[in-house]
Amino acid sequence: MKTPQELINKALEAREFAYAPYSGFLVGAALEGKSGQVYTGANVENASYGLTVCAERIAVFKAVSSGEKEFSQIAIAGSGEGPTYPCGACLQVLAEFAPGLTIYTGSDPGQYQVFNLSEMLPQAFSLNTRR
Fold first, then answer.
1. Residue 33 sits in a domain of what CATH number?
2. pLDDT tens for residues 83-129?
3. How many domains does the chain have?
4. Does residue 129 fall inside a structural domain?
5. Residues of the domain holding 36
């Protein structure tokens, strides 16, 4: 299992690949699967704003399309002041696969906040009402 700082460093590296010509707000994410493999993503904007995809979802989609569907932790690093929190859509996608996920938010090495996904999205939608 990667340390929080190792994951944040990978998110910072991924952030360098963000495509954000409209907002200028770069985000990187590093998602660790239960296997120990880390999947990264960077936000990709589009002139048709609704088609923009967040870094967190790109990391999840890369992982799932590679065969991994269970995750332990994710780090998110944005280019703004302070921590970058996942949006509601990203939280819902993450909840589909890892309702107990640990989330690290930080843009400066050595400084991060820690959350559990259920803290950030306490009433996630699920078709399974027994969750």
1. 3.40.140.10
2. 999 999 999 999 999 999 999 998 776 789 999 999 999 999 988 75
3. 1
4. no
5. 4-120
Q: In what order do the strands lie in the sheet with 38-42?
A: 38-42, 27-33, 71-78, 102-108, 111-116
pTM attached to this predicted model: 0.94
User: Count of CB atoms within 10 A of residue 60's CB?
Assistant: 25
Which one of 32, 45, 56, 68 is the catalytic residue?
A: 56
81 is catalytic: no
Residue 131 resides in a domain = no
- Is the residue at 44 inside a domain? yes
pLDDT in tens, 35-66: 999 999 999 999 999 999 999 999 999 999 99
Q: Is the Cβ–Cβ distance between 45 and 30 less than 8 Å?
A: no
- Kindly write down the DSSP assignment for every residue of 67-100, as one continuous string: T---EEEEEEEESSSS--PPPHHHHHHHHHH-TT
